[in-house]
Here is the input.
Amino acid sequence: MNTSITAVYKSTLRLMGTLTADDTYSAIVQEAQRLADAMYGSIFLMKHDKLVRVYSTVPKDLQIVPRTEGYTYQ
Here is the structure.
């Protein structure tokens, strides 16, 4: 089996348990960082027509604010 698909499959198994929202966000970001070999990760959710950061491993001084005209919103 393709190693990329195997890695994604193993990641989904880690998320199958009953988790709180914060635990789920953390697990998703940790797995995405591992799969993408990334240093940082964030999760944004739409709340009242605005993207809100709900979880992040990005240091405060490096965090960006999504622009409503940017691709993230589109």
Q: What stands out?
A: The two ends are 35 Å apart (CA to CA). The mean pLDDT is 83. Residues 7 and 35 are 7 Å apart (CA to CA). Helices lie at 3-14, 21-36.
